[in-house]
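Lecture 7, part 2: worked example. A protein chain together with flavin-adenine dinucleotide.
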Amino acid sequence: MKVDFLVIGQGIAGSWLTYFLHLAGASFRIIDKSEYWNASAIASGIINPITGRRFVKTWLADELVSFADEHYSAIEKVCDAKFYSKEKIFKALHSNQDLNEWSAKAKTGYYQPFLASDELYYMDESKFNLPFGCFHIDNAARIDSHKFLSSWRSYLELKEFLISEEFSECDLSFKNNAVQWKGIQASKAIFCQGYRASKNSLFDFLPFAITKGECLHVHAADLGLRNILSSKISVVPLGDDLYYIGATSELNDSTLHPTSKMYNRLIQDLNTLVKVPYEVKGHYVGIRPTVKDRRPFLGQHPQFKNLYIFNGMGTKGYSLAPYFANKLLLHLTEGKPIDREVDIGRYQEKYENA
Ligand SMILES: Cc1cc2nc3c(=O)[nH]c(=O)nc-3n(C[C@H](O)[C@H](O)[C@H](O)COP(=O)(O)OP(=O)(O)OC[C@H]3O[C@@H](n4cnc5c(N)ncnc54)[C@H](O)[C@@H]3O)c2cc1C
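Predicted complex, written out as structure tokens:
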């Protein structure tokens, strides 16, 4: 069988890339063995344009938020499923310094439309321990990650584009200016493997700085929280009094088991934040494909010109993946250059010296 593209991995990166390839009418197959720990599936799926201790607007926030809004709504229609919602995030303040930091930014032009209000909100003090109050982040969003991934996977299965198998580089060969994999000949192969690319001998020259993340699901019948709450940890309403609590971050740890150390840390943070009883329903792990310079990895392998990578989404896959999947598509189909900031060409020298 001959196709234009062979895509490896159906996390958020591979999902968005295949969506745009499909829209563009390109032929492709996607290989994904879903039994692996997949960061995309355990993510809380939040798109938050204001982050960090100093409440700064994130890199490309304006472009990413409006691109996500348009295209998550569009992919919902293709999948005939609902997994995207616009959200207001309640961001907790913890000191007078926080208060000053936020009030200098609220309502100023640069922070619109994300800090549209200069009013503080105080949570019910019988339930939450937040004496300094919260401010609102507007125009945030959340994607139900399980629903998104499974809906797009079902669509790929229906169209017979998905190969549910383990991929190994050993089965890949090059012939007639194309790549061959188990009876499939593709003009190009694109690796969307998440953190596992850091162990792929073709791409292990890239400076991944992977981070393990752990999170909990808890049931809290009396909490009554309807918006996302972002404090030291995030509390995300999942429906039916179930909440996502997370997440932790451990640099360069790719072990796939949940730990009691991180469980205790999450419970301690939750006990500091809420005053109502809750029951832990699940404890999950994912490995984020984070990068030393915090910019995605897009582009062509320095030596094997039929091979490409789409990776390095770090902590923000749900906003970065749609935007940069489209950029990669325009490069692959129309030859548009990839921005130097995200092109893996920035590590050409590192590859040559490896
Ligand atoms: C706890 C936690 C919370 C997070 N919360 C958020 C959030 O709220 N918002 C946000 O934007 N981001 C969040 N992230 C980050 C986000 O999850 C990542 O940026 C994103 O999931 C990376 O997607 P990916 O497709 O590159 O990798 P992955 O999700 O890891 O997907 C890679 C896929 O490739 C497949 N694969 C790899 N190798 C092979 C092979 N050899 N054969 C077959 N299949 C293969 C895997 O099975 C997997 O399905 C969070 C991450 C964690 C861990």
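The mean pLDDT is 96. The chain has three domains: 2-42+147-207+294-353, 46-143, 211-288. Keep this in mind for problem set question 3.
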